[in-house]
Amino acid sequence: MQPTSRKRLLILASKLGYQTSSFSAAAQKLGVEVIFATDRCHQLEDPWGDRAIPVHFERPQQAALDIVTAIHEAHEAPPDALLALGDRPTVTAAYVAKALVLEHNSPAVVEACRSKLRQREIFRAAGLPVPPFFSFSIGELPEIVATRAQFPCVIKPLSLSASQGVIRANSVPEFSTALTRIRRLLQSPELQVTREPSLDRLLVEHYIPGSEVALEGLLDDGNLRILAIFDKPDPLEGPFFEETIYVTPSRLPLEIQHKIQHCAQDAVRALGLIRGSVHAEFRINEQGPWILEVAPRPIGGLCSHALRFGPFQNVETHETQEFISLEELLVRHALGLSGADLPREQASSGVFMIPVPNSGVFEGVEGLDQARSTPGITELHITARVHDYIAAWPEGASYLGFIFARGNDPAGVESSLRAAHSRLRFHLAERLAVEHPALSQTKGASSGDH
Prior knowledge:
The protein has 13 helices and 21 strands.
């Protein structure tokens, strides 16, 4: 199942993205040449040694021009395909694909996917189930805006991911408190420097009761292939919405799963998506599935380790070969290589995204050996860096790490994940305020932000 000729793949990704090395390894295994375009500083001389083209994803059209120009000036052949990892590079990828005449989603469609408000408008116009919603400026008075809300409601930024800045409010006082907190987050230097679109507006929608699922899929000519449906067994009822456990296959009745698939297909058709990865989120209750959002990218972080495909047989020897990763499947799909149609493995699998219990400076973790030795656990990665300040939700969007498990059934996988997590003890110290220089002379050196 190796390619017969050397293909070239352009990968657009954040310089700090978890997935970049996994995709690079998958491409290398297949003998595929990779060109990286990342948001690293253009003034540094290839600090990661990956010869990446430096771009600014907040200016997608200029970033696309920079990529195309860099490839041309290097006298290199254009890539045969491209992949965008994470939300920020997706619009740039669409403009690059348009310039290089590669099969991809159009820039206008991908730009619409980057806005929770625009998605809601498109879904409502298509007759898909969405809750009542409206948008407003963060400068408006909370008590005035709250008169338009149906309680309970959820307030969320238009373009942030991983439930960052998403808060449930059950009353006017809670609405006012939530708005003040979200406004502070959106106006923080850490977010302002990202130049994310629409940081000056918020979306309010009626809270949908029920459970949640995530769907991973692949599109070809607008036809959606379901790779996995993940149950989220922990209730996501607020006031914040940090995710924890994903387990597949889903334990929902097949009738409900079919409705989710149909809703997902209708959603991507309404958006106009035609090609590549799709990650979608749904709420499920007695009324059926409610589409929350669709992203034209693969599942984020290290969560892809929960998915394997195959095994496949060597067509010549008929011997069973190894499983392949989601990254390898997506590389094969993008380049039209054989093996892109492999089904997900038959075993159950899952991931525990370790949330931050409280904001603080990460000082370490105990119990790693005990957690790793838990029956069913296949991997455990602590991704937080010691001495870094880690923010909890809703201000935060980064997990402390990821735990993975496999087993004969979803219930067993969930049990293994919970048992492993219970054996971990994280130490987060309070971040000390920076003292005035005059005071630090008498009280010792101050502790700055980490």
